[in-house]
Amino acid sequence: IKGRIDPRAIRYQAPSSVVLEDAVLSDPAGQPVARVKWARATLSLTDLLVGEVAISRIELVEPQLMLELKDKKLNLLEALTPKKPPDKKKPPKAAFRIDVIEAKDGAFRFTDGKNVTVVADDVDASGSLEMNLARELFLLDVKEARVKSGAVKLPELDVPITDVSGQRVLVLAD
């Protein structure tokens, strides 16, 4: 990836989990995009046996997303972009999914630097993610979310948010 992931510690947990502690994802310029105090990702071995790549569960403690839109480019996507572009002549065959994502005590910040800033603190959420690279499909299904406090800041208008929760939010991009 063009960005960089720097964990303070990384541990393998048998049979199929990896734990990161105090990890930071930085964009290509070295600016932090995401932080997490503790994260565990568990690979689905049964799916791997049939040739599918799936993570059965990701657990995140105190994740922070610091998203910024500059020149129509989102820093998170810039950080996760492969260093070497994929060969357009060979369409990707793989699909990828995360069955369960759980985040506890998180924080979220998005700004375009001009018109809008969205801030959310003390966020708990669960969901799943599916990506089909051949079809260029991205589906994030947030099944439950709770935001203790936050704000949407627009020029001439600030909207405080307190104790917001939701049952299901679908984000689809293709």
Overview of this structure, please?
6% of the residues lie in helices and 66% in strands. The chain has 174 residues and is mainly beta. Strands 1, 2, 3, 4, 5, 6, 7, 8, 9, 10, 11 and 12 form a 12-stranded mixed β-sheet that branches. A hairpin with a 2-residue loop joins β6 and β7. The protein is globular, with a radius of gyration of 17 Å. It starts with a strand and ends with a strand.
Strand and helix layout:
Layout: E1 4-6, E2 9-13, E3 17-26, E4 32-43, H1 45-49, E5 53-61, E6 64-70, E7 73-74, H2 75-80, E8 95-111, E9 117-132, E10 137-154, E11 157-166, E12 169-173
Parallel strand pairs: 5-8, 6-8
Antiparallel strand pairs: 1-3, 2-3, 3-4, 4-5, 4-6, 6-7, 8-9, 9-10, 10-11, 10-12
For the secondary structure, the number of strands is: 12
Count of helical stretches: 2
Query: Helicity, in percent?
Result: under 10%
* Broad shape: globular
- Mean pLDDT, to the nearest integer, reads 84
End-to-end gap: 21 Å
Low-confidence stretches: none
**Rg (C-alpha, Å):** 17 Å
Q: How much beta, percentage-wise?
A: over 45%
Q: What class would the helix/strand composition place it in?
A: mainly beta
Q: What's the SSE pattern?
A: EEEEHEEEHEEEEE
Biggest pleated sheet = 12 strands, mixed
